[in-house]
From TrEMBL:
Annotated protein name in UniProt: Glycosyltransferase 2-like domain-containing protein
SUPFAM superfamilies membership: Nucleotide-diphospho-sugar transferases
Superkingdom of the organism of origin: Bacteria
Organism: Methylovulum psychrotolerans
Gene3D superfamilies linked to this entry: Spore Coat Polysaccharide Biosynthesis Protein SpsA, Chain A
Length: 218
């Protein structure tokens, strides 16, 4: 049976942001097995965001999040679905280009092993297609307890429990705002993430992440 993928974009109606590039890029990448759902956030609190992200898992068997100021490549969704076909892996993820607000862009380091996922919340960056059956409500509880990004935990749980596959293709263009740079580089946030992820397991921590173009070597 073929997989279907739901792309989810959460928006804040109170924030003035041009959604055009995001919507156009997702539209260009949709396949017959994909759909795009845009969900306005009802509240701006961190807890409301955690709940909205977790609730979005009910929208499909595979879910990928695209932020409303970011874009994806035309082939990104197709490649994610192909990478998850005929296996039970929990996550398929592409490489990512980080675009700063001053126009400078750099390719994010690829995630090559599961130990990196245990160390850093940015290891499994966008675009990540998550097989939702492998995400439990522990992620929501841990995100609230440790006040760290629930999307990080959802990707980590699916990857560490079922395995992940890297797609060596720049599938996501992530706009990095100054406040986000401070957040992801904050040692306290990284420490909270490392603590939160421990209950999710480290079964695969010593192994390399599978690469879809060359078996288990990256």
């Amino acid at each position: 049976m073929s997989l279907s993928l739901t792309v989810v974009t959460h928006t804040d109606p109170r924030r003035a942001r041009d959604l055009g590039p995001c919507l156009a890029s997702v539209q260009a990448a949709l396949t017959p097995a994909c759909r795009h759902v845009v969900i306005p956030l009802a509240a701006e609190t961190e807890d409301a965001f955690f709940a909205a992200r977790y609730a979005a898992l009910q929208l499909g068997e595979v879910v990928a999040f695209v932020d409303d100021d970011d874009t994806i490549s035309p082939d990104a969704l197709r490649l994610c679905l192909e990478a998850l076909a005929d296996n039970t892996l929990g996550v398929a993820f592409t490489d990512c280009m980080i675009v700063c607000t001053d126009g400078v862009a750099r390719r994010a380091p690829p995630c090559r092993d599961y130990q990196a996922i245990c160390r850093s919340p940015s290891a499994l960056h966008h675009l990540a297609a998550i097989r939702t059956a492998y995400v439990s409500d522990r992620c929501l509880r841990l995100a609230r307890q440790y006040q760290c990004g629930i999307e990080w935990l959802m990707k980590a749980e699916a990857a560490l429990s079922q395995g992940a596959v890297r797609i060596p293709h720049i599938g996501y263009y992530y706009v990095n705002h100054p406040q986000q740079q401070q957040r992801t580089g904050n040692p306290a946030i990284r420490q909270r993430y490392s603590e939160a992820i421990k209950p999710l397991g480290e079964v695969l921590a010593g192994l390399p992440v599978r690469c879809c173009c060359c078996g288990w070597l990256t």
